[in-house]
Amino acid sequence: MKWTLALAALLAANAFGAAAPTQPALGIDRAKSHASAAIAEARAKSVFDVAVAVVDAGGTVVYVERLDGARPDASEAAISKARSAAKAGSNSANQQGGAALTDGGKVIGAVGVSSGGNATQNQAIATAGTKTLDTARLDKVTFIPEAEVDQGFNRFATIVNGVGYWVITSRRTAPGEGEVHTTDADIIYVIEGNATFVTGGQLVEPRSISPIEMRGKGITGGEEHPLKKGDLITVPKGVPHWFKVVDGKFSYYVVKAKS
Fold first, then answer.
1. Which site from 7, 71, 83, 170 is most exposed, i.e. has the minimal number of CB atoms within 10 Å?
2. Diameter of the chain measured on Cα atoms
3. How far is CA 114 from the centre of its chain?
């Protein structure tokens, strides 16, 4: 597997122009922060069918995030836009959804955005992604007032972005896709509603949406867990999981922890 990823990275570097070894690296944590900034801008614009991809200077995918409302091919489209912007470098303005990332005047990667919105809207979201989320809270005690938490549930928001963890307010009215995260554990606490949550088993028609996440249409096998208000369930990294049934409005917190 490591050899396959290394080969893929080498091929991507040859295709897009490999960065010199001394060029600033774009790691997964920074890539996530850029994606989170773009997602925050999308939600602020009430765009909930968005996918955001972050690639390095050579066009290799570092991170992809896709909201539940996005069309099936949105991730691939976002990756394509990010690669085009990385290749264009500092001349990537007006890419209709792509913006280059720079560090010390050097291009280290790019952000790509795909949604059902117009090109101007996608470009604004991608440009917002060239910034990172405010890091002032990262190593400090964080208090989020009730009103801000409630607003987060209305827009499926990351309300805390910490070092090695982040907190997401989530609300579902329908089943989702099966997922496997290779680096993150999920800690889920139910606020309201009822759902059937499946862990283990195998993804149905699995596909890679980023180097650290697989998704599928559902899960075969596995163990079913009926979830209700007050329940808490943890999902270690590498374990398939899926909201198989959602009864009405189902709200919950997810604490994602790098493990």
1. 7
2. 53
3. 13
Euclidean distance between CA atoms 195 and 80, whole angstroms: 36
Inter-residue contact 57 to 26 (CB < 8 Å): yes
Q: Phi first, then psi: what are they for 122, rounded to 5°?
A: -60, -40
**Cα–Cα distance, 56 to 70 (Å, whole number):** 23
Strands (E), 18-154: 51-56, 61-66, 98-103, 106-114
* Whole-prediction pTM: 0.54
Locate 2 and state its tokens.
């490591």
The better pLDDT of the pair 191, 11 is held by 191
Which is the CATH superfamily of the domain at 146-258? Jelly Rolls (2.60.120.10)
CATH superfamily of 2-128: Haem-degrading domain (3.30.450.150)
Residue 219, CB half-sphere, CA atoms under 13 Å: how many? 26
- Reported as a single tens digit per residue, the pLDDT across 59-111 is 999 999 888 778 889 999 999 999 999 998 866 555 789 999 988 889 999 99
Domain ranges of the chain: 2-128, 146-258
In this model, does residue 127 exceed pLDDT 50? yes
